[in-house]
Amino acid sequence: METKITEIINRIKNSDKRLKIIVAIGLLGILLIGLSGAFDSGKKEVTTDDFSYNEYCAELEEKTESIIGSIDGVGECRVMLTLKNSSESIFAKNSEENTNDGNYSKNSEYVLYDSDNGEKPVLIKEYFPEVKGVVVVCSGADNTAVREGVISCISSLYGLPSTKISVIKLK
Questions:
Q1: Measured between alpha carbons, how far is 150 from 131 in angstroms, rounded to an integer?
Q2: d(Cα 75, Cα 159) in Å, to the nearest integer?
Q3: Distance between CA atoms of residues 126 and 148, nearest Å
Q4: pLDDT per residue over 21-70, tens digit each?
């Protein structure tokens, strides 16, 4: 076996320049094919941290209840929020558009970075659900000044018009 390999090497050494170039290109190709299997293809499934709509809503209600409850004259209170839509995340993408002979094609892939938990997409913006309406049930709602204070506070917190805020007396 060794003699055959040595014989082939000697033939290549004694051959013309074109054969040497062809053999070198072939060996380089085999090397590249072998190395390509050692690396990932770079195509990963995009995953994000789970967003819990219910937890987000409950946390907002809890914070709002705490703020409203600290207003003078409100007394005991409960708050319920309704939200628009759900969360939206915008990730960085590399996009490539081609227009050849009237044909249009677009390729895009997410920009990834290495994190402790593997590769993750680069987050550009994240939009949380917007508050659509608020109901406050409190023991001090029969007082007009308290009711107006609660409406003003919630309007400032969430940018809602007073028509989207209801303040009712707690039984």
A1: 16
A2: 24
A3: 33
A4: 777 787 777 767 777 666 544 444 433 455 677 888 899 999 999 999 99
